[in-house]
Design brief:
The chain is built from 15 helices and three strands. By secondary structure, the chain is mainly alpha-helical. The protein has a domain of about 45 residues. A three-stranded antiparallel beta sheet has the order 2-1-3. α10 runs antiparallel to α11 and α11 packs antiparallel against α12.
Length: about 400
């Protein structure tokens, strides 16, 4: 059913605007008049592309504007409304009126209409995979099946908010080094390309033999001044080529293997993947999703082909009667401590709690390691920039010293 945006006046003459679903603009006007609103303007908010049989994919071009933080906030509000005893349709209607993001408002209006037509909430959400990932849909489905949708939505909100907080801490830790790297690179590029030539031109006009450092500086400066656009074009083309090659299975496998093998960074990526594995699997199991289904979902979000293969293999072995700890113990990417905690959780019947503990310990270690790396990165950056600036100064001063000795 189409979704319409409207602007109108109520009985007291107050201007109103909002969104509603109707079969046509005529029906939309009738709905507004029935609710006491005189329509001034009505336009379709979203048209379904021709050739598509149903809702899936109809809003793909608009979903990029929906941020995870907005989904988490909506989930928290829906959990509160359901917990207060408000019916699902009424809760969704209330959310649609409160959402300010036009794209997200349209999506939730379509979800509400789908539920109103008799579909489950999970099925309605699954029609918008760019906004609601598989973990979200599966947890909602388990909540509907168990009759505890408000509890599951609360867990989903906790999960989303925790992930957002973790990303924010990582971004905050990396923001300063990245900013300094960009600023330092730009300053050095401008210095060598535009300022140094004006100084070294004096030496070239004197037609004297220059020291090797000065010659190197002049050559580098001339090259950057003449071919800076070639360098930028090469960098841009290199990024495009790497992105295209990176989509191939073989290249992705090598990239993910390198991400786990590279010194220092490899251990960090391994801990990040293990923390994501523990928190996601724990949330799914706590919400009533079966272990096999939960592993299939987790394997798609760990963002590493090697670890994904391990999790998929573990799911196959569990179906044959193997334990989760036993199937994961064959992998070098899962630490012995994590395997032991999973084993204890399986034996004690508290696997979800142990998975959460694994995630918390790994996330703490990742955060402390990133903090240590960024604290080490700052002096290294200063040292590198100091060496480059020192070389430039030395290359300029050296011929001046030689010329002053010749004058004496």
């Amino acid at each position: 059913m189409p979704v319409y945006e409207y602007r109108g006046l109520n009985n007291s003459g107050k201007s109103l605007k909002g969104i509603l679903d109707a079969d046509s603009d005529v029906v939309a006007r009738e709905k507004l008049r029935a609710s006491g609103i005189f329509p001034v303007e009505i336009k379709e908010a979203l048209s379904k592309p021709k050739g598509l049989p149903s809702e899936p994919g109809s809003v793909v071009r608009l979903l990029r504007g929906v941020r995870p933080a907005e989904v988490s906030a909506m989930t928290r509000q829906l959990s509160t409304l359901l917990g207060a005893g408000v019916p699902l349709i009424g809760s969704l209607e209330s959310l649609v009126t409160q959402i300010t993001n036009p794209t997200f408002k349209r999506v939730m209006a379509q979800v509400k209409e789908s539920v109103n037509e008799g579909n489950s909430l999970a099925l309605s959400l699954s029609q918008h995979p760019k906004v609601f990932p598989s973990i979200y849909v599966n947890m909602v489905e388990s909540g509907e099946a168990s009759g505890s949708l408000d509890v599951v939505m609360d867990r989903l909100a906790d999960f989303g908010e925790h992930q957002q907080a973790l990303r924010s801490r990582f971004k905050a830790a990396l923001a300063y080094p990245i900013f300094m790297s960009i600023v330092g690179t730009i300053v050095l590029f401008v210095l060598v390309t535009f300022i140094v030539p004006n100084i070294t031109r004096v030496f070239a006009e004197m037609r004297q033999t220059l020291p090797l450092p000065t010659v190197v500086l002049i050559e580098v400066s001339d090259f950057l001044l003449s071919f800076w656009w070639v360098i930028l074009l090469a960098v841009f083309c290199g990024i495009l080529i790497l992105r295209r090659i990176g989509k191939r299975p073989g290249a992705r496998y090598l990239r993910d293997r390198l991400k786990l093998r590279i010194p220092v960074i490899g251990r960090l990526n391994q801990k990040i993947a293990l923390g994501r594995f523990g928190r996601t699997l724990g949330s799914l199991l706590q919400s009533g999703v079966s272990l096999i289904s939960a592993l299939q979902i987790v394997s798609r979000i760990v963002d590493n082909v090697l670890i994904q293969e391990v999790i998929e293999k573990a799911g196959d072995e569990i179906q044959k009667g193997q334990s989760l700890a036993g199937s994961l113990s064959q992998s070098p990417w899962f630490s012995s401590m994590a395997i032991q905690m999973i084993s204890v959780g399986e034996q004690s019947g508290e696997l979800e709690r142990m998975l959460y503990k694994i995630a918390e310990s790994q996330e703490r270690e990742v955060e402390s390691q990133i903090t240590a790396l960024t604290s080490m990165l700052e002096p290294v950056m200063i040292l590198v920039m100091g060496v480059i600036v020192g070389f430039i100064v030395f290359s300029i001063i050296l011929p001046i010293i030689e010329m002053s000795q010749m004058i004496r």
